[in-house]
C-alpha cells in the first residue's frame, strides 16, 4: 500500500522538477519576450485559482476521486501535447492553461485519497509524501545534466516519460476506503473569513507568493546570465527543496519553543533577505547557497504554519473551503500576479530589479503579519 500511494507523488513532483527550473529557458530559446515568458509561466499558477475548487467539488459530489485523478493525468498529458506543434504565443498559452487546469486537479484530490486510505495510520503521511520531493530532486538533476548535452528545445521530449509515469501510476492508486458521512455544525464561513487574523493570513500569503514570482519565473534565466550552467542551476533548485525537507523534519521541535506568530515573522524577514541576496549577490556562490537554504523559511516554514492555521480557524466544517481559498488566493492569484509583475520589471530594469521587487513584497507581507497574524486558540 505504501509504495502504491508514494508512486504518484514521485511522478507528479518529478514533472514539476523537470519543468519548473527549465521552462523559462525553453521559452526564451523559443524567442518569446520577457513579458510573454512571464504570462506563460503565470498560467501555471493562474489555473490554481479555480481548479482546486472545481475538481474538489466534483470529487465531493461524485465520490469518484480516483477516477477524476486519472482524468486529470490523461487530460493533462493530451493538452500538453499541443506544445509539440510549436504554436505561437496565443496557442501555447491556450495549451498551458488547458494542461495546468487538468494537472492542478491531481494533487488536491490525491491528498484526500491518501489520507483516507491511510486511515488511522495518518502519521505515515510524511513518509509517503517524501517521495514527491525525491522525484522533484531527481528530475531536476537528471534533466539539468541532459540539457548540458542537448539543446533546451528538447525539453518537452524529456518530459514525455514523466507524463507516462504519472498516467500509469494513477492505475495503481488504491480505491478509497468508505467512511460514514457525519453532519457537522457548519456555522458561517463569512464569519470565519472576516476575522482580522484570517484576513491578514490570506493577504500575507498573497504577498508572499507575489514575492516568489521572480524566483519561479526568472531564477534560472538570472543564474544563466551570471554564468551558471544548466546542471548547476538544477543543483541550486534541488538545494532549496532539500532545505525544505529538512525544515519539515524539525518543524515540530521549533513549534515547542517558538509561537506561530514569531515563526511567521522570522520566516518572512528571512524571505525578504533571501530575495535581496539573489538580486545583487548571485556571483558569490557561498551567499547564493545560503539564499537557497533559506527556501526552508520562505516556503517550508510558512506552508507548514499555513496548514495548521487553516485547520485551527476553519475547523472541520470549512476545512476544504479554507484549503481551496488558500491555494487559489496565494499560489494561484499571488503566484500569477508575481510572475506577471516580475516580467514587467525584467523587461525594463533587469532580473535583479525583479528580485528586489520580491523583497519589497515580502516586506509588505511581514508588515501584514505583524498587524494581524494570531495563532488559533488551540495552537497558542
From TrEMBL:
GO terms for molecular function: lactose binding; lactose:proton symporter activity. InterPro entries: HcaT-like (IPR026032), MFS_assoc_dom (IPR024989), MFS_dom (IPR020846), MFS_trans_sf (IPR036259). The chain crosses the membrane at residues 7-26, 32-56, 68-85, 91-110, 130-147, 153-173, 193-211, 231-251, 263-290, 326-346, 352-373. It is a multi-pass membrane protein. It holds the Pfam family MFS_1_like. Its main location: membrane. It comes from the Bacteria. This is MFS transporter. It comes from Marinobacter lutaoensis.
